Amino acid sequence: MLTKANRADIDANIEMFYALSQDLAHSSFPTYTDGIKTKEDFFSRVYAGLERDDEELLLYCDRGEVLGLIHYYWIEEEKYLSFVVFNVKRGAAQAIDEFLEYAKARFSGFRIDFGFPLENTEALSHLSALGLRRLDQSTCFALHFCDYSPLDEAAGIEEVTEQNYSAFRALHDRDHDDMYWNSDRLLEAVRGNTQNPWRLYLLCERGEALGCVYFTTVGGMMEIFGFDHKDGIFRRDVMKKLLIRSLNQAKADGAKHVVYFAEPEEEIAVLRELPFIKIADYVAYTMP
């Protein structure tokens, strides 16, 4: 059963919710096992949700026992919903069913994105069985900038502006029509119209755009959303040049850590050459 949580509910159960956040088999993304986000960060983020108009906290209970917390947020104008916490001690499949039923009327027509570690087999198996579409499977890495010294940068890298945005759009639109941060939303980021600042870079050679990267930094945390390559063909040298430029800039901007969700070829070809640490495998599903 799902019930709306109040401060007393959180006070009584926050230690259990945090303990679940440290167990990949019973927690969700964003993960608190990355060595970056602390117990204090978890407490602060959960309590903040009680005060926000676009978030809600739900207790998941069975026969009177509190088994977990579902903390979600929504963006009304985008008809988008996702999760801050979806941590359940047991009965994840039932919790998902109850949440989807709960959201059916209130969030009709919304896109709902779920993300779980590969170890959370109950949640992921159930999402698949429900027929939700798998968005992504990748590996989450982290880098601590205290362990990173700026490296020499390659020529041909330029910041994305409205003037060269068509070149970025041509790369990004090829494979990312279903990504939340599509070209239209990232154009607003370039214009400075998003809550947090973004940086986008292109790598060009002989007047041709070979690849791009796009990332944001919030509260000392750099998050790289992705790299795109010409013709959709992964190019090790392109990614490495763009990644070094991005890491150098983020460190100069004061970033303390970076999280990146890597495809297998990126891990083998590039990340192993830099001080990245593997955190967990990530799987995302979306509805509809």
Let me know the number of strands: 12
What Rg, in angstroms, do the CA atoms define?
20 Å
Number of domains: 2
Q: What percent strand?
A: 25-35%
Query: CATH homologous superfamily of the largest domain?
Result: Gcn5-related N-acetyltransferase (GNAT)
Shape: globular
Oligomeric state as shown: single chain
Q: Describe the main β-sheet briefly.
A: 12 strands, mixed
Query: In whole angstroms, how far apart are the ends?
Result: 24 Å
Task: Describe the protein in words.
By secondary structure, this protein is an alpha+beta fold. The protein has 2 domains: 2-131, Aminopeptidase, CATH 3.40.630.30; 144-283, Aminopeptidase (3-Layer(aba) Sandwich), CATH 3.40.630.30. Helices cover 31% and strands 34% of the residues. The chain is built from 8 helices and 12 strands. The protein has helices spanning 7-21, 39-49, 92-106, 121-129, 165-172, 183-190, 236-252, 264-269; strands spanning 2-4, 55-62, 65-75, 80-88, 111-117, 133-144, 157-159, 198-205, 208-218, 221-229, 257-262, 277-287. Strands 1-2-3-4-5-12-6-11-10-9-8-7 form a 12-stranded mixed sheet, sandwiched between helices. Helix 1 (7-21) runs antiparallel to helix 2. 31% of the residues are buried.
Q: Which key terms come to mind for this protein?
A:
288 residues, alpha+beta, Aminopeptidase, 2 domains, twelve-stranded mixed beta sheet, 12 strands, globular
How would you summarize the topology of this molecule?
Layout: E1 2-4, H1 7-21, H2 39-49, E2 55-62, E3 65-75, E4 80-88, H3 92-106, E5 111-117, H4 121-129, E6 133-144, E7 157-159, H5 165-172, H6 183-190, E8 198-205, E9 208-218, E10 221-229, H7 236-252, E11 257-262, H8 264-269, E12 277-287
Parallel strand pairs: 4-5, 10-11
Antiparallel strand pairs: 1-2, 2-3, 3-4, 5-12, 6-11, 6-12, 7-8, 8-9, 9-10
Helix pairs in contact: 1-2
